[in-house]
Write a structure and sequence with these properties.
globular; A-factor biosynthesis hotdog domain-containing protein; AfsA_hotdog_dom; Thiol Ester Dehydrase, Chain A; transferase activity; single chain; AfsA-like; about 350 residues; alpha+beta; about 30% strand; about 15% helix
C-alpha cells in the first residue's frame, strides 16, 4: 500500500491592488501624507504581499531632473519599495509599530537598462514582495529582509532587495547614546547650517538648489570628493526628524558626486548597491569620495563607486550603474564649479 502526503494548496492570488487612496502614513514611517506613495497592501501566502504605489507626475525632489524624456527616478522606485516593505513588516510579519527599521544594505536593478518612462497619467507601480523575519538566538527579533519585484503596465520594471535590523524605539535611543557617549543632535535643530558652500545645482543635475546635498567638490586624479551637505529643510529628504543622515540621502549624495565626477547629468541611474556600516552623524564632517568604473568604448563613466567616511571610519559604500550613453561627459572644472546603520 502506498501512502501519499497531501500537499497544502497554495494561497489564492489576491486581487490587483487599488490605486484610489494611500495607506496610513504611520505604516510607512512618514509624517506627510503627500510623501506616502503606497496605495494598497495585500498580504497573502504567509510572508508574501502585493502592493500598489502611485508615482507622481511631478514632485519637487523626485522629479527635479534634466533627463528628457523624463523617467521615474530610481530613488522614487526604491522609496515605494521601502514603504511597501515597511508596511508589510508591520502587517504581515508582526513587527510592532514602535520599531525602527535600520537599513544594513539595499539594492535596486532596473530592467532594460533604462528607467520606466513618465506618461500622461500618474504611474501605477505593482510591487510583489516576499519578507522574512530574522531571529536572534532565543527567538528575539533581530531584523527583516525583503525582496520586491516591480512592474508597470504588465511589464517588469526591476527588483529591490532590502536588509534591515529592527529595534524598538526605546532600544534605538539607548543604542545611539551608547555609540556616541552623548545624545545626538536632531535635524530640526540644524536647519540652515552648512559647513561649506553648496555645489552648483546644475552640475549635480538639479534645478532647485534645495535638492543639492553636497558641498563644492575637489578633484584628485580620477577621484572626486565633497562634503555631504544636505538642506535639512528639504521636506522630501527629511520628512520627519532624524538624528543622523538617512540612507536615502547618502544614495542621493553618491549620485550627485558621480555627476561631479564626469557622469552626464542627463544620464539616469539604473542600478544601486549600497551597504551602510555606521550611523552618519549630523555633527561631524561627512566626506564622500568617488571614482568611475571601467567602461570600455564609452565617452563617460557608466558606473561610479563612492565611499563615505567620517571621523576616520567608513560609514557607507555605494556602487551606482548608469544607463549607457555615448554622450561626452567632461568632468566639471573645480575652478568653475561652485557604529551602525542608516535608518529609513
Amino acid at each position: 500500500m502506498t501512502t501519499t502526503r497531501d500537499t497544502p494548496a497554495a494561497a489564492p492570488e489576491p486581487p490587483p491592488p487599488s490605486f484610489t487612496r494611500t495607506i496610513e502614513r504611520q505604516l510607512v514611517h512618514r509624517a506627510a501624507v503627500s510623501e506616502v506613495f503606497v496605495t494598497d497592501l495585500l498580504p497573502f501566502d504567509g510572508t508574501r504581499y502585493l502592493a500598489g504605489a502611485q508615482l507622481p507626475l511631478a514632485h519637487g525632489y523626485y522629479g527635479d531632473h534634466p533627463r528628457r524624456p523624463a523617467g521615474y527616478d530610481f530613488l522614487l522606485l526604491l522609496e515605494a519599495a521601502r514603504q511597501a516593505s515597511t508596511a508589510a513588516g508591520h502587517q504581515g510579519l508582526g513587527i510592532p509599530m514602535d520599531c525602527a527599521f535600520l537599513v544594513n544594505s539595499w539594492s535596486i536593478r532596473l530592467d532594460g537598462g533604462t528607467p520606466p518612462p513618465v506618461g500622461a497619467r500618474p504611474g501605477e507601480l505593482h510591487l510583489r514582495g516576499d519578507g522574512r523575519r530574522v531571529q536572534a538566538r532565543g527567538g528575539r527579533l533581530r531584523g527583516a529582509v525583503f525582496d520586491v519585484d516591480l512592474g508597470m503596465a504588465g511589464r517588469p520594471v526591476g527588483r529591490v532587495h532590502i536588509d534591515t535590523s529592527v529595534t524598538s524605539g526605546e532600544d534605538y535611543h539607548k543604542l545611539r547614546f551608547l555609540q556616541r557617549g552623548s545624545t545626538p543632535p536632531l535635524t530640526e535643530q540644524l536647519r540652515g547650517r552648512l559647513r561649506s558652500r553648496p555645489a552648483d545645482a546644475a552640475a549635480v543635475g538639479r534645478a532647485n538648489p534645495v535638492n543639492v546635498v553636497l558641498g563644492e567638490p575637489a578633484h584628485t586624479g580620477e577621484e572626486t570628493s565633497a562634503q555631504v551637505e544636505p538642506r535639512y529643510d528639504n521636506s522630501a529628504l527629511f520628512d520627519h526628524t532624524y538624528d543622523h543622515v538617512p540612507a536615502m540621502v547618502l544614495c542621493e549624495a553618491a549620485r550627485q558626486l558621480a555627476h561631479l565626477g564626469g557622469v552626464p547629468v542627463g544620464t539616469a541611474v539604473t542600478g544601486c548597491q549600497a551597504r551602510f556600516l555606521r550611523f552618519a552623524e549630523l555633527d561631524s564632517a561627512l566626506v564622500a569620495t568617488g571614482r568611475p568604473g571601467v567602461n570600455p568604448g564609452e565617452a563617460a563613466p557608466d558606473a561610479y563607486h563612492v565611499t563615505f567616511r567620517q571621523d576616520g571610519a567608513d560609514i557607507a559604500r555605494i556602487d551606482l550603474t548608469f544607463e549607457r550613453t555615448a554622450t561626452t561627459g567632461a568632468r566639471p572644472d573645480p575652478a568653475q564649479t561652485t557604529d551602525r546603520k542608516a535608518r529609513s
